[in-house]
């Protein structure tokens, strides 16, 4: 039984994950295990802080309180060993909008921007929607464990004249938590070729090894060329609060970004977001540890069920994130995945194809930030339907 975690029925609450099924999958009655949003209430300390704020003051224009920056800087330093300076931290209402704006103000039309595929699909829009050139470099898939093909990264940077890399750490959807050595090699290559790194570390609080997450900037030979994007939205299930951190150590790039924000009148966020994030970083640590334990328990169930009942399912090791990457290619052809998962299993999972095209079509991403009962429904449905195949 959970001590601090409170599983929630979220249907009927305008929740994208459940109430957005018809729009995204054309079927409202699927079992939702897709978008990275949890079926747990946020930590109690966050609810309490929001209620206190709402009942004690007006909801007028709001300054960003020092306590918000302090709480985040303390969290980054104590959890990830990243010592931040207050002036480096800029605002965005989300990591995805920040990626769009960084691309817009720090690169030029036609510039090559690299992503390591398969990867979180909004990265593609952050490049293509701004008239930049999308340069894809596939990770190496070694039996479900994905690694970076450093030689290919370097040769592609040279051949395609790459100016920036949008990097995901830990990596969604393949669940890798990159090692210090991998991050050191990658950042060294980027330095050699003057490639700016936009490092999306929104899942950084979900790394399951003892030493935790390594911020890319802390492994880089030139940390001022790494812009880090973080948020409490994944960590504490607060995506509706619309708040993210954009860490820009270099003054010139920071001024460009802030000038851009001023142009689009996006200077600061909603007061409730500041209150929620501050409370979460100050008081949510124990809740997060329980959550990570629950995710690992869910993952253990999934691994065991597939090993015993459907050993051809390749499960990527879940080193980071709460999103588990499955490869059903031993049983299902890419073009049959939708029919299998939606029509037969009645599940809504993120399709591999979304993360970079047909070559990933036998992959599917299952969200494990939910109750064990919900994970059982998803895993058992896949096992049951695989067993029925001729
Ligand atoms: C890697 C990654 N980046 C960014 C986001 C979304 O961030 P935001 O809601 O802050 O735009 C997600 C959500 O799933 C994600 O997985």
Description:
The chain has 390 residues and is an alpha/beta fold. It has two domains: 130 residues, Aspartate Aminotransferase, domain 1 (Alpha-Beta Complex), CATH 3.90.1150; 236 residues, 3-Layer(aba) Sandwich (Aspartate Aminotransferase, domain 2). 40% of the residues lie in helices and 16% in strands. It has 13 helices and 15 strands. The strands form four sheets. The protein has a seven-stranded mixed β-sheet with strand order 2-10-9-8-7-3-4, sandwiched between helices. A four-stranded antiparallel β-sheet has the order 11-12-15-14, with helices on one face. A two-stranded parallel sheet has the order 1-13. β3, α6 and β4 form a beta-alpha-beta unit. α5 runs parallel beside α6. The two termini are 39 Å apart. Pyridoxal-5'-phosphate binds next to α5.
How would you summarize what this structure contains?
The chain has 390 residues and is of the alpha/beta class.
Keywords summarizing the entry:
single chain; 390 residues; alpha/beta; Aspartate Aminotransferase, domain 1; Aspartate Aminotransferase, domain 2; 2 domains; seven-stranded mixed β-sheet; 13 helices; 15 strands; 40% helix; 16% strand; globular; binds pyridoxal-5'-phosphate
